[in-house]
Amino acid sequence: MYNVAERRNIALKMLKEDGQVTVAKLSELLEVSEVTIRKDLQYLEKRNLLIRTHGGAMQNDFLDHYQHFEEASKHFHEEKTRIGEAAANLVKDGDTLILDSGSTIMQVARHLHGKRKLTVLTSAVNVAMELNRNTDIQLIILGGVINQPSAAVVGPYAESMVREHFCSKLFLAGDGFDPEFGLTTTNALEAHLNRVMIRSAQETIVVMYSSKFGKRGLSRICGMESISTVITDSGIPDGIRRALEEKEIKVIIV
Predict the structure, then answer these.
(1) How many secondary structure helices (H) and strands (E) does the chain include?
(2) Which of 29, 81, 194, 254 has the highest count of CB atoms within 10 angstroms of its CB?
(3) Contact call for residues 205 and 229 (beta carbons, < 8 A)
C-alpha cells in the first residue's frame, strides 16, 4: 500500500511520461478508491502541478507566450527538419496545398523544392518567399493584417480568400496539443483562420515537435476529429500517441 506522498509522486511521474493520467488507471495501479485519487489530483492542482480534466489530469504547461519566428527557428531545429522532410514526402506532384505559418511549416516548404505542378495557399509571408523560388509552384498568398511574431496574415480578408478554394492537404502547426482540448495556438485570430483552413482542405496534417504535446495555448483550433495525420519526433508521450491512434489518426514518428 502506498502512502499519500508516494501516490502523488507516482501520479506526477506518470504525467511526465505520458502527458496525461486517468483517475481509473491511477485507482487500479495504486489500489485505492477513485475518490481518493480525485482528492490527490485536487491537492496537486492547487499547487499548480497539474490541470484536472474530466476523468483525470494533464500536465500544467499552459502556453502564455508568443515567440518571434526567428527565435522559434532556433529551437528543435533537427526535429523540425526531419518533420518537414516527412511532411513533404506525403505531397504528390499536382497536389493543392494550404500551408500554415511557423518555423516547422517553413521546413515543410523548404522540402517541397523538386515537386512539380503544385498549387500552394499560405498565410505566411516568409513561407511564400521561400516557395517563390520554385517556378513549378503556383503560389497564392493570403491578404490581411500581418501578425508580426509569426510573419503571417490574419483576419477576414485572409479567411474570405481561403473560403474560395478547396485543397487536397492542409499542413498545420499549432502551439500545443492535448487529447481532451485538442490543437491550440496562442493567437485567437490565427486559430480562427486555421479553422477556416480545415474546412477548406480534404485532409489536415499536423506537424509538431514532441515538446508541444501535453500543452495548451490560449485558443482552440480543433479537436482530434478534424486531424487525419500527425508528424512528430520520438519524444511524443506514449499516452498521447495512444490517444491519437485510438481515434484512427495516423502518427508518423521521425
Answers:
(1) 10, 15
(2) 194
(3) yes
Distance linking the first and last C-alpha atoms of the chain: 40
CATH assignment, 4-59: 1.10.10.10
Q: What is the pLDDT along the chain (254 residues), one digit of tens a residue?
A: 788 888 988 888 888 777 778 999 999 999 999 999 999 998 888 877 788 888 888 776 554 444 554 555 556 789 999 999 999 999 999 999 999 999 999 999 999 998 999 999 999 999 999 999 888 999 999 998 888 777 889 999 999 999 999 999 999 999 999 888 899 998 899 999 999 999 999 999 999 999 899 888 889 999 999 999 999 999 998 989 999 999 999 999 99
Question: How far is the C-alpha of 58 from the C-alpha of 193, rounded, in Å?
Answer: 27
What is this structure's pTM?
A: 0.74
How far, in Å, are 25, 126, 160 from residue 155 at the CA level?
43, 18, 9
Instruction: List the grid coordinates of 89.
Output: 514526402
Phi, psi (rounded to 5 degrees) for 46: -60, -25
